[in-house]
Structures are given as C-alpha cells and as structure tokens.
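target protein:
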Amino acid sequence: MTAHTQPTALITGASKGLGRALAAELAARGWRLVVDARDANALGVAAADLPSAIAIPGDVADPAHRAALADAVGDQIELLVNNASDLGPSPLPPLADYPLDALRQVYEVDVLAPLALIQLLLPSLRATRGVIVDISSDAAVEAYAGWGGYGSAKAALDQLSAVLGAEEPDLSVYAIDPGDMRTDMHQAAFPGEDISDRAAPEEVVPAFMRLLDARPASGRHRAADFSPTAGQS
C-alpha cells in the first residue's frame, strides 16, 4: 500500500464532546482522520466539518466494526484515541443495585473494545512509534458514590494502559483524565443538574495538543497538568 503523506489518527466516539473537539483540532493541523460513533446522523454532521475524515458509524464493542476501522486506517497510524465510552445506567446506581448486564456492557465498551482496537492496530503503531491515548476519568482513582461501574472500568483501562506502556517501550501510551466537561455524558451522570460551570471540550483540547507535542513518558496524566497555566501560582 502507498504510504500516506499525512499523519493518521483514529478517534472513537467522535460525533460530539471531546472526540469531536479533538478531531477538529487534528484536522486543522493537517491530520488524516478515521472517526466513528454509534449515532450515524450525529457522526455525519461532525464529519461534514472534517474534510480529511473517513467516518464509519458503529459500536466499538462490535468486532466487525473494529475490523472496518482497522481497514480504513490502513497500514499507517500515528495516533489512536480510545474515547468512546459507556457511562452505564442514568441515574448512576449504587453497586448494591447495579444491573450486572449493564455493567458487562460498560466493560465491553470501556475496557475490552479499546484493548481489541489496540491489538488490531499494534503492528502499524509499532512501525510509526505511535501514540495511544486512552480517555480516563478521576472516577478511576477516586471513590465517588454511584460511580462504581464507570469508575472501575476506567481503573481497569488505566492499568491496561500502564502495562501496555511497560510492554511496548517504543510507543507512547497515555491514560488521560480530561477533567469534568460540559458534555452529554456528564449531563447524564448528573440528571437535572446545571453543569454549565464545567469546561467545554474545546477548552480541554489545547492541553491534549501540548501533551502530544511534548511526548512525555508513558503513564497516567491529567489534562490540567498540560494546560497553559499549569505550574503557575
């Protein structure tokens, strides 16, 4: 296959929120994009603003869909962003009442699907000494009532990221906590509450770009640590 002149990124869950904002910034930087989301209509609207994007609607928990994403990427990829997530039931249930079928779905989307995509794309990522970004949460490390499902899934994703970083020293593997954002998922976690004080996803993207430019050692990071004001008193 002919090598692409543009760097290539695959971003899951790119129809809205952080995924869409990251895709927009990378497109502005000249990246070739492969993007997905479960909502085909929303993905189409988002992709209309991304001239270099290949949009493939589907569920990352579906092996056939993951194979289609890998085919669209081809033999070159510099960046994989595992952003697609399943929050679980809303309102968030306590663990004593958590429906186990719903928890299995959370783990399928938030833990197993990212690893499956990584496994498919590892040969190409190794060839480019690429970057893997797994979107985490402070719920992965803090004990918030109601967050046992999503939080434990993100904790598992954090550990997968950490071990992968140890096993693949030529790659940059990051679990990144973006912080609270004004997104549909965050609203679903707090039904009926006003979340207008949270940052818009577009406000968080510059921190991600600073991290990608800096390429620190593999590990868990907070987007706040890469904000323009990080370290200032």
Summary: The domain at 8-226 is CATH 3.40.50.720 (Rossmann fold). The mean pLDDT is 92. Residues 15 and 43 are 4 Å apart (CA to CA).
